[in-house]
Amino acid sequence: MSIFGAIMEKLGFLKKKAVEAVAGNEVQAAEAPAAPETPVQSPEVVAATETTTTATPAETVDVVAVCEALAAKNPEKLNWKQSIVDLLKLLGIDSSLANRKQLAEELNCPKDLIGGDYSQMNIWLHKAVMQQLAANGGKVPEELKN
User: Is-contact 125 104, C-beta < 8 A?
Assistant: First the structure.
């Protein structure tokens, strides 16, 4: 999985982890109650149900709420709103320079920012991650995207 994909997964874009993180109820799949058995329906009933049911849009992930919930559980005081390193640490993702370079390549960071003064790359990365999260349906305040 890509690093950005891992970020999205940890924030709940790819799973229901966002709701669980905010609620503080990280329930293991084995502990979840079993779904009630549904009666067998005739093909006509199934077809009618499928044509009248509309797909509900995916819920918007509130990036700040998820990160704040994770930060409340983290013993370190992380500046995740400004630091890509701290954001990655908060999400339990390797924040090494090699990983940040890989993330920069995934997000099409300008080549002149990859190498040399990594503080510029880190600033660019944080903004790009927040912009991409917003572009993928995340709720991200403007001040984190600019």
Answer: yes
Cα gap 125→113, rounded to integer Å: 10
C-alpha 23/C-alpha 84 separation (Å) is 25
- Report pLDDT digits (tens) over 39-66: 444 444 444 433 333 333 457 899 999 9
Regions in the chain scoring below 50 on pLDDT: 17-19, 25-57
Q: Which residue has the tokens 């920069």?
A: 104
pTM for this entry: 0.71
Torsion of CA 72, 78, 84, 89, to 10 degrees: -70
Q: Measure Cα distances from 84 to 5, 27, 92, 126 in Å.
A: 15, 28, 12, 5
User: By the 8 A CB rule, do 130 and 140 touch?
Assistant: yes
